[in-house]
Amino acid sequence: MSTRRLEAFSDGVIAVAITLLVLNIDLPDLGPGETLGHGLADQWPVYAAYVVSFVTIGIIWINHHVMIGRLRETDHAILMLNLVLLLTIGLIPFATSLLAAYLNRGTGAHVAAGVYAGVFLVMAIAFVTLNRHILFRKTHLMKVELTAAHRRRILARDAIGVLPYVLATALAAVSAYLTLAIMAGLAAYYAFPAAAGVGIGD
Amino acid sequence: MSTRRLEAFSDGVIAVAITLLVLNIDLPDLGPGETLGHGLADQWPVYAAYVVSFVTIGIIWINHHVMIGRLRETDHAILMLNLVLLLTIGLIPFATSLLAAYLNRGTGAHVAAGVYAGVFLVMAIAFVTLNRHILFRKTHLMKVELTAAHRRRILARDAIGVLPYVLATALAAVSAYLTLAIMAGLAAYYAFPAAAGVGIGD
Amino acid sequence: MSTRRLEAFSDGVIAVAITLLVLNIDLPDLGPGETLGHGLADQWPVYAAYVVSFVTIGIIWINHHVMIGRLRETDHAILMLNLVLLLTIGLIPFATSLLAAYLNRGTGAHVAAGVYAGVFLVMAIAFVTLNRHILFRKTHLMKVELTAAHRRRILARDAIGVLPYVLATALAAVSAYLTLAIMAGLAAYYAFPAAAGVGIGD
Amino acid sequence: MSTRRLEAFSDGVIAVAITLLVLNIDLPDLGPGETLGHGLADQWPVYAAYVVSFVTIGIIWINHHVMIGRLRETDHAILMLNLVLLLTIGLIPFATSLLAAYLNRGTGAHVAAGVYAGVFLVMAIAFVTLNRHILFRKTHLMKVELTAAHRRRILARDAIGVLPYVLATALAAVSAYLTLAIMAGLAAYYAFPAAAGVGIGD
Which residues pair with B73 in a beta bridge? Predict the structure, then answer.
């Protein structure tokens, strides 16, 4: 099977998932006497979670493109591992709404942040699993032959790219704000050109 | 008409349907004194239904790709039968939310599970109908000429692939959990490489 | 501008609109003592409206493909008229939910049915306007040169295709069920091969 | 990286965002004794906001096509600036629902209109930033070599195209209706052929 329709389907799922994030931004529920401006400002965690999730999904999309771009064609195992990856990406809008709803509450914030970072962690593991499968089990389906050293280097970068998500998930027990800050820093790091060629999928 | 835009449209509908599944995962309604962690754990049927529906739609997509990939071009009848298939796929997010909402309730679980598996059953029948139409009525539109024996073998596999959905629908009368287990087992079966080349659409 | 990206964007909007229809199918609100089976059966207008709207949007998509397929390239006016057409298609999920909610109620059913058929009528007019513009103002952008007689014949068919929507809108004043029946009959008519090559966009 | 998948992904996000606008059109909440017709007429700001946002997003899409169409290939910086642009487009459904909900209310209308036009303003700035980056920093990635004068002229048009959004945002403090009227006038202006070749992205 050619990679064209795999890319089209993955692009579709990722594009829908990234755009559904906006459905988490509801009109503010105004308390008695509260102005709209105040109500909008009050729900800042919603916007912060939107931006972090949007940029992170966008970076996943770029990395996905690089990963699949190495393939000449696909097979059943690649399609299924890609499906698992898409399944985890599909969960991000839910995880985002959970974090946005609980970040500011006294109770539940730690759990919500743990689930939020945890979904990204599972996504990163699904990504590395697929990339590892392509690089080491499906070399015959790749466009260009890479040396074993090169392939190990790519996978090592991938593995290092998973660590911040482990950290963000673990530190949710300390502070939900800390988790969000790590995720935001990570998105910013990948967004800058200097980081191009570093991290998951590269 | 070329198959390119048919594939693009079908990919779009399937990608949206699979991604809309996440909208069924709401924030948990916490009872008094209930923790978020407990509330999240309590709604496990929502996650189970998400995973089963996501993987099953993903497998439909793969099979759809194989089926349409045999065609050189399409005609009005193929477009309409494909539309009916998409109509049934479009119902899956609703069926999924129904099962997720009622699986754990004493009353209604059987009906919900029957509707859930029933929607997949109707989808499978629409799939077989389209594939049968292509294989036996539109051989002149196919890329490669298949022997009658080969075409009968494909259709026989399709027909066998429908049976588990009949079973899952019928056994909803016994237990909703049993229906979900059959659907989950079916998704897992198709997901493994050993099953590649077996089942609906192949 | 090439027609490729116009088709991709239109396919995307139509695919999302057709798949959003399922969001109109909510879990039934069960009255005290009402079973789930009864509640599901009770909301049959929701399913009827889903099927009619889904098939009709699918047929619009086929006709859109035929219309744009005649073009070698597009220009600003075609893009804008196409945007207006997409705007009307985008309204169909709302019109569908309105009809589904009010079909069975004593009051409001006529208005809801009028709005429902009216949205399709406006869509049909937007379609004919675009097709007329292409056939008579943008002949230099078409792939194949059609005779004036042929172009008039296409447009005449288009105009005739608008009439049932006028009828369905007008008869909403008599009965909302009648409107739905006309829309259902129209969808069924176009769905059958005999009607291929007849109606809007052909 | 080729521009093909960038276009496919951007088309997907924009197509989903434009189609999600319809989710802002809810069934009217009828007061006691209020007819459906009256309730539907009463929520005219919802329709006005739908039309203005739909047409404006459509025009963004056309301009995006022109902008990316100048590129032979893309790089990391272009992908990231494009992602920021998509992030702002993704916010439009929220901004639209905010304006629609508050336009007719005594209090909050100014803030809602300011946020509405402000989101479009930020979107326009993201657009100009990306176009400026392409025209002046990535000339080596462009298909056709443009003279410096030509590139400056394109950017000057872009900058002028931002001004109406500044105006619409500022005048929200005077009247929310005025903001909507400016946005509507702007959409109408770009929609007419005479304005082709003028404005952002051109």
Answer: B2
Helix/strand/coil percentages in chain C, nearest 5: 80, 0, 20
What was the pLDDT predicted at A201?
Answer: 41
| The two structure tokens encoding residue D56 | 């404006």
Q: Which one, of B198, B164, B202, B189, lies nearest residue B63 by Cα?
A: B202
Neighbours of D137 (CB within 10 A): 12
Residue with tokens 């169909």: C92
Nearest-Cα distance to chain A for D73, in Å, is 14
CA–CA gap between residue A76 and residue B122 (Å, rounded): 25
Domain borders along chain A are: 3-195
| Amino acid at position B44, single letter | W
B185 in reach of chain C (CB within 8 A):
no
Considering only CB atoms, C15 lies closest to which of B12, B23, B112, namely B12
Whether residues C111 and D37 touch (CB distance < 8 A) is answered with: yes
Residue D128 has pLDDT above 70, yes or no: yes
Intra-chain end-to-end CA distance of chain B, in Å? 24
Helix (H, G, I), strand (E, B) or coil at B2: strand
Compute the residue count for chain D: 202
CB atoms within 10 A of CB C134: 23
Residues C120-153 have pLDDT tens digits of: 999 999 999 999 999 999 989 999 889 999 999 9
CB contact under 8 A, C37 and B111: yes
Tell me the two tokens of residue B126: 């629409």
Q: Does C19 touch chain B (CB under 8 A)?
A: yes
Concatenated DSSP letters of D126-167:
HHHHHHHHHHHH-GGGBSSPPPHHHHHHHHHHHHHHHHHHHH
Q: What is the pLDDT of residues D33-73, one digit of tens each?
A: 899 999 999 999 999 999 999 999 999 999 999 999 999 99
Q: What type of residue sits at position A138? A: K
CB-based contacts of C198, cutoff 8 Å, min separation 6: C157, C161, C190
A20/B16 Cβ within 8 A: no
pTM summary value: 0.93
Structure tokens at D152: 């400056």
pLDDT for the residue numbered B195: 47
Quick one: average pLDDT of C91-102? 97
Q: Does D74 touch chain A (CB under 8 A)?
A: no
- pLDDT(A15) > 60: yes
Rounded CA-CA distance B39/A61 in Å is 32
What residue of A is the nearest CA neighbor of B67? A1
Helix axis angle, A44-69 to A109-137, nearest 10°: 10
- Secondary structure (3-state) at A71: strand
A12 part of contact set with chain D, CB < 8 Å: yes
